Amino acid sequence: xxPLEEIYAQSPDPVAYARGYLRRLTAVLAAIDxxxxxxxxxxxxRAREEGRRIFxxxxxxxxxxxxHFANDIGIGTRSDGPPFKALSLTDNNxxxxxxxxxxxxxxxxxxxxxLHLEPGDVVVAISxxxxxxxxxxxxxxxxxxxxxxxxxxxFDGGELRKRAQLAIHVPTERGEYGPVEDAHMVLxxxxxxxxxxxxxxx
Length: 202
Fold this sequence. Notes:
Layout lengths: L2 H8 L3 H17 L3 H16 L3 E6 L2 H14 L10 E4 L4 H11 L6 H7 L5 E6 L5 H12 L3 E6 L4 H6 L2 E4 L7 H24 L2
Parallel strand pairs: 1-2, 1-3, 3-4, 4-5
Helix pairs in contact: 1-2, 2-9, 3-9, 4-9, 6-7
């Protein structure tokens, strides 16, 4: 039984569940390493300073987070200085379905990186389980070429936590997708607002 199931089992009342969910999410957020967050922000800042791109990838809810993250980093940080060149590889349905149909779903991200990844670019992989084959193939590809990789993980971190050069881990029970994906969105807003303020105050 997951913590959320336990909260519901104690009382199915929606007010009690809401309070319990928020308590659980607060505890999850408090367990994230702020130094890992700071290191990820520095990697993204360096990419901006060097005119490099930041690619975001993920599946399902994490695909939505990848899109949102790319928007917040790329558009939400606008200033008079150099831009953050942030792109989500989850957003082109024609490309995704072409690659999935022709080469298999495990290739949808790595083949896009094969076309677009250049030295100094950064790959940000978002996966609650940390075990999505298409995400891992893309991260392995980027690392083999010397590119920086950042993993946003949940549960026990899976393989992504081991393979990414830098992992921001959201420790939860296996299957707690809600709190993990909530936390990843908080991290999006935390990092993007920090970078925006830093860019505007230089």
